[in-house]
Write a structure and sequence with these properties.
By secondary structure, this protein is mainly alpha-helical. The protein is about 60% helix and about 5% strand. Helix 1 packs parallel to helix 3. The longest helix has 27 residues. About 30% of the residues are buried.
């Protein structure tokens, strides 16, 4: 029904608009990088409840394509993600497959339960577990061995790792340089001269020459911190 699709499109665009304005034009500084990571987490988390809403009307693939394109176009350039048109296309594909996988899972789960309230509870609960064990809140290497199995069937793990690799795999990109290593510490408000002295002390302690232009964290190190190293 056209009115149903219009309602779904408005819902997707509203979510995209909120995320786009909340994370507007982030840069490659430590603060901007943390904002990008937060956006990518929230982006995929917001798609799960939207997918439940979409699945109720047996959304067709053409509709999913339009909705995914609307969401991607609203957020990709507004947030300041990298990759140009090829990066945008990859982001769109990930958003589309996330919608598709979520709606397929919902259709699968609700096929076993006739009561809509019970089905909703099951779906919301399992999506919560998927997010919890996807790597958002706790790194893969820190998940207890008796729960690590839930990390791998998570519907959120794979799109999350895909967008992180697309965003941070360029070895030429640097996300923390020189004194920026102190940006997310209690020393962030110290004078620059003091920070440079601290870098000299760090150089002496580590045996590495860390200057104001030295790249401290590149994309690969950032993905290692996020635990995004187990799939290509």
């Amino acid at each position: 029904m056209p009115e149903h699709f219009s309602c779904r499109l408005i819902s997707v665009l509203l979510t995209a608009f909120i995320l786009a304005t909340l994370y507007w034009k982030l840069n490659d500084s430590p603060k901007g990088t943390q904002g990008q990571l937060s956006f990518l987490r929230n982006c995929l988390q917001c798609l799960s409840p939207l997918a439940y809403f979409l699945a109720h009307s047996l959304v067709s693939i053409p509709n999913l394509i339009i909705l995914s394109l609307a969401f991607s176009a609203t957020t990709f350039w507004a947030v300041g993600l990298h990759g140009g048109l090829s990066g945008f296309f990859f982001f769109f594909i990930i958003i589309f497959t996330s919608f598709w996988a979520a709606t397929a899972y919902i259709a699968f789960a609700t096929g076993f339960v006739s009561d809509s309230i019970v089905a909703f509870t099951i779906v919301v609960s399992t999506f919560g577990y998927f997010s919890l064990y996807s790597g958002f809140y706790i790194a893969c290497q820190e998940i207890p061995p008796f729960w690590i199995w839930f990390h791998y069937p998570s519907l959120v793990k794979y799109p999350y790792q895909a967008v992180l690799q697309s965003e941070y795999e360029d070895p030429a990109e640097c996300f923390v340089r020189g004194v920026q290593v102190l940006d997310n510490t209690p020393f962030v408000n110290l004078p620059v001269a003091v920070k440079l002295n601290m870098l000299q002390c760090m150089s002496s302690a580590t045996g590495a020459n860390i200057t104001s232009s030295t790249c401290v964290i590149d994309g690969m190190k950032l993905m290692e911190q996020e635990g995004v190293t187990d799939i290509s």
